[in-house]
């Protein structure tokens, strides 16, 4: 009976975990990179992937190029279906720069405009059904995590006109997301957004301002449009520390043991 349960668990795991799409992986690497880079197969594509256009370029900066260092389409967060298709559209002369390992969960969408520049930092993670539309310029910092069904879009796609000022409004504005940002699910990071390092963005927020001007550190943003709702709040990143915190009862969150508190503070240095 135990053996049967293990076999069923393996079957369920394979059904719910996207498989490597070998043909699309080979196509993507050799169409977007120089031969010496492409043969290393640094980008792995998983599951069903629709590729409408591959006229852009993939480059790696400040890091060693390793096989499978970029994994796109894996069902890593188990918050989306693997039955849908991911979509890649890379317009002519556009460029995506990776500075290290990065992971995209299932049903992702990446679209670049002509001459667009998209930079993705090392240690980044993108949840299921993430959409990144870069028509001009987007930079996503190191170790930033963006949860499922969120969108990062630097364009209105259409033009608008200010009747009072009698001027054309800019259709695109650069987006800069700092290092170690934690962005909640279903958030929209819109054109003109600029965030400091360690910013936390609450779920379902609409972010569209330059928060680099703020003198405060470790901001929490929330709302539509997003406003600063808290300061001096940082996410605890080390997995070992999180495991220790999971073992605590909810009643103990107010006052932690001194050793654990010191360990958390030391992790911020």
How many helices? The count is 5
Low-confidence stretches: none
Strand content: 25-35%
Q: What is the CA-based Rg, rounded?
A: 20 Å
Number of distinct beta strands? 23
Overall CATH architecture of the largest domain: 3 Solenoid
Q: Topology as H/E string?
A: HHHEEEEEEEEEEEEEEEEEEEEEEEHH
How does the helix and strand content classify structurally?
A: alpha/beta
**Strand order across the largest sheet:** 1-4-7-10-13-18-20-22-23
Query: Class of the largest domain in CATH?
Result: Mainly Beta
**Termini separation (Å)?**
50 Å
Which bin fits the share of residues in helices? 10-25%
Report the CATH topology name of the largest domain.
Answer: UDP N-Acetylglucosamine Acyltransferase, domain 1
Mean pLDDT equals: 89
Q: What is the makeup of the main sheet? A: 9 strands, mixed
Q: What would the principal axes of the Cα set say about the shape?
A: globular
Integer count of domains: 2
Keywords: Acyltransferase, Transferase
GO molecular function, one term: acyltransferase activity
Protein name: Acyltransferase
Organism: Zobellia amurskyensis
